[in-house]
Amino acid sequence: MNKSYKNFPEIMKDIFRKIGYTGHYIHRSLTTTLDKTRNVVITLVTSGTHEHWTGFSVAIMHKQNGTIVQQFFPFQDYLQSTQDNGQKYSPYVWRSSALNQDQLHWFGFAPTEDSIFEMTDAIDNYLSDWK
Fold first, then answer.
1. The pTM is what?
2. Cα–Cα dist 60/26, whole Å
3. How many distinct structural domains can be found in the chain?
4. Is 70 exceeded by the pLDDT of residue 62?
């Protein structure tokens, strides 16, 4: 996963195809159907720093009444990495003006397939409570 991405749907597909999620990818979100009356919206979100996305917001939406429940899944809970000096830092996806502006990158490390699966498994388990 040590690569850059052209756009948000590309990074979302790379992550969520691993657990078989399909649906509509629109900008930073994946929308998929939970049942006849509810959808799931998974969105790449920022915690306030410009051009840094730090996790996923998972919302269960009633098709007529709006948000039922929403949960944040921060990357740092699943994708912890260690620098050369042994200090831990929080991972994020970013876009930098110093690099190609049209590309998104993981900050400073490449998440492993196992760490991505741990995060998507946590999201999948959360959603299974609502099925």
1. 0.81
2. 17
3. 1
4. yes
